[in-house]
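Title: Prediction job returns without error message
Component: structure pipeline
Severity: low
Priority: P3
Assignee: unassigned

Description:
Job completed but the reporter wants confirmation the result is attached to the right record. Sequence as submitted:
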Amino acid sequence: MAEIQGLDLVEISPTANPPVCKVIDYKKFLYELKRKQKEMKAKTAKIIVKEIRLGPNTDDHDFNFKLNHALKFLKDGAKVKVDVFFKGRSIIYKEQGELILLKFAQAVVDVGKIEQMPRLEGKRMIMIIAPKK
């Protein structure tokens, strides 16, 4: 039947009993499959992560400056990764670093929600904030 119509006989489900076959144009079938995959890829949301670095002794003005940047990033729909970097012996101020991160989270609570609470990784204390829908 496929030869008479000038089309291809394509096995759709080889494991079925009996195997399922279709009479279709195989090149067109592959083209449609590629197009559907391309559409699905285009529809997926691309997550952007912006990073803001603070120190354990960050001053209020610097804190507010970086806070404004974070608010802008969250309003644009990007996630914000806030980290406190401990240089040298400043690692003894872990509590101060955590307080700064929690203060930061409290300041952005109306536009973002905490996705990952502050945790220490080596010389960095990291917190991730995601935008609210």
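Comment from assignee: result matches the submitted record. The chain has four helices and six strands.
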